[in-house]
């Protein structure tokens, strides 16, 4: 068998290709950003063709610089930004419109109408999620109703729908495979959590032609072969598809009930493994599929999705201009010992879990003339951590499970002050692995399991090693006083958009 497995990690702001050895160590990588299209307030789009071109480029560059060929790769996995919605013509391969990104809020009135009509309860019962602008079905419905030619093309069988995993799979296989996996399908508002299939009642509710939908398959299994004319220059087995946060769960080897991880990227995504049990949240969390390995039952998770965390640091850089780069946020924030009563709630696109308030907008509260840029930077880091605590509190209420530790990954974990604040605000140890790119690693694990490169999840657990650990240091009084102030700040952000 070949010596390596690889993963395409297609994220909200960039695409990377990574190669791993049997011990889960990184061998090679390349990464490219793509354009963020913001045509109107609340609208966020990507060009699917640009994403595919970037994907080709990172694969070709990585293989060339590492002196690897298709014969060296046992299998590849694909992990992706979830919920982002693509529609394309399967006869030409041309997208019928820009992709609508998971952050986009243009469907806010449509999802509010669903809730008002009582359909929200049906969606929660079957799909495990509330009606929200976040998920794919409302985005696809908007495309069908508002983009010229899409509905007609779909009625003729000339329009395929997919999240980014499906779009990349279709291109990698030269159009031979139109499929998705259970984790991505569980983010659409269209899949029944119990049957793991598209639900007729939900599909009809959104008015979606059934022929547009990809086949739903387990996350780890045989999806097809790359085409010889593609970026690999030969056939490689595609053995895994997972949404990015579920891939991070696999990369963090969170295979047991009660295991939890938090990924710090553009947003934060905290998942808790509930095993084969479907936990219906009563506290604003999502019920989602954690993973399914071919021939085994699906495992489920409860998830708290937070829209703006790492992107709040980007906002400090790009909009306010008070930092030169992400690393500078830590340097600046360390200039002060606390925020002196100031809170920043970065509800730029509303609030996701556990509030689900699209009417919320960002606010900085408690300002005094005394405050400086350093206080704003520290308040931004604390906002990342307080939003995570909101989710952990909801998980505790839903599952009665006390968090023993929090495994963390993603770009923000390089900010050591932020990770110490996270431990302090949660009163739980925070653990970062040696291999920080757990999303790509998880997709590689899924692909490797499918072809026998690895034989069991126990083998994968042996690969996991801790790189850094942060222990809580705040006294209880400071922790609870700070969180009470955060809750008051959140209240100030509500009811800004009618």
Structure description:
By secondary structure, the protein is of the alpha+beta class. It contains 16 helices and 23 strands. The protein has a seven-stranded mixed beta sheet. The protein has a six-stranded mixed beta sheet with strand order 3-2-1-5-14-13, with helices on both faces. A two-stranded antiparallel ribbon has the order 4-7. Strand 10 and strand 11 form a beta hairpin. Helix 12 crosses helix 13. The longest helix is centred in the last third of the chain and has 27 residues. The model has no long low-confidence stretch (mean pLDDT 94).
For the sheet with most strands, the description reads: 7 strands, mixed
Helix content class:
25-40%
What is the number of E strands? 23
Distance between the termini: 59 Å
Question: Quick gist of this model?
Answer:
With 498 residues, the chain is an alpha+beta fold.
């Amino acid at each position: 068998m070949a010596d390596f497995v690889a993963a395409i990690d297609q994220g909200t702001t960039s695409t990377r290709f990574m190669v791993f050895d049997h011990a889960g160590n990184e061998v090679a990588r390349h990464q490219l950003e793509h354009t963020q299209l913001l045509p109107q307030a609340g609208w966020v789009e990507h060009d699917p063709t640009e994403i595919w071109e970037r994907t080709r480029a990172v694969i070709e560059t990585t293989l060339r610089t590492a002196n690897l060929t298709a014969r060296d790769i046992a299998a590849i996995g694909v992990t992706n930004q979830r919920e982002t919605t693509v529609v394309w013509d399967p006869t030409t391969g041309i997208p019928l419109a820009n992709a609508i990104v998971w952050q986009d809020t243009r469907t806010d009135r449509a999802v509010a109408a669903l809730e008002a009509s009582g359909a929200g309860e049906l969606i929660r019962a079957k799909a495990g999620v509330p009606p929200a602008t976040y998920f794919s079905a409302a985005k696809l419905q908007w495309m069908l109703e508002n983009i010229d030619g899409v509905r007609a093309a779909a009625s003729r069988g000339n329009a395929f729908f997919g999240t980014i995993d499906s779009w990349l799979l279709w291109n990698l296989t030269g159009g031979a495979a139109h499929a998705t996996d259970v984790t991505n399908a569980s983010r659409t508002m269209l899949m029944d959590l119990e049957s793991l299939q598209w639900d007729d009642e939900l599909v009809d509710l959104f008015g979606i032609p059934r022929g547009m939908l990809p086949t739903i398959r387990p996350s780890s299994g045989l999806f097809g072969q790359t085409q010889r004319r593609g970026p690999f220059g030969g056939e490689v087995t595609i053995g895994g598809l997972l949404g990015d946060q579920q891939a991070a769960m696999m990369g963090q080897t969170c295979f047991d009930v009660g295991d939890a991880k938090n990924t710090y990227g553009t947003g934060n995504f905290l998942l808790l493994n509930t095993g084969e049990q479907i936990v219906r949240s009563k506290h604003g969390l999502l019920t989602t599929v954690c993973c399914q390995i071919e021939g085994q039952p699906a495992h489920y998770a409860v998830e708290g999705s937070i829209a703006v965390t790492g992107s709040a640091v980007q906002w400090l850089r790009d909009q306010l201009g008070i930092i030169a780069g992400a690393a500078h946020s830590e340097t600046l924030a360390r200039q002060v010992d606390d925020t002196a009563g100031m809170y920043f709630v970065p509800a730029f696109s509303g609030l996701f879990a556990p509030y689900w308030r699209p009417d919320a907008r960002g606010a900085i509260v408690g300002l005094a003339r005394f405050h400086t840029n350093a206080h704003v930077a520290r308040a931004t880091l604390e906002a990342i951590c307080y939003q995570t605590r909101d989710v952990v509190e909801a998980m505790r209420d839903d599952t009665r499970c006390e968090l023993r530790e929090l495994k963390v990954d993603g770009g923000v974990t390089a900010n050591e002050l932020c990770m110490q604040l996270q431990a302090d605000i949660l009163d739980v140890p925070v653990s970062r692995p040696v291999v920080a790119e757990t999303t790509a690693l998880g997709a590689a694990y899924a692909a490797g399991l499918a072809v026998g490169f690895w034989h069991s999840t126990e083998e994968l657990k042996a690969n996991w090693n801790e790189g850094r650990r942060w222990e809580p240091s705040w006294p209880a009084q400071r922790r609870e006083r700070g969180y009470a102030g955060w809750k008051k700040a959140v209240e100030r952000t509500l009811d800004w958009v009618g």
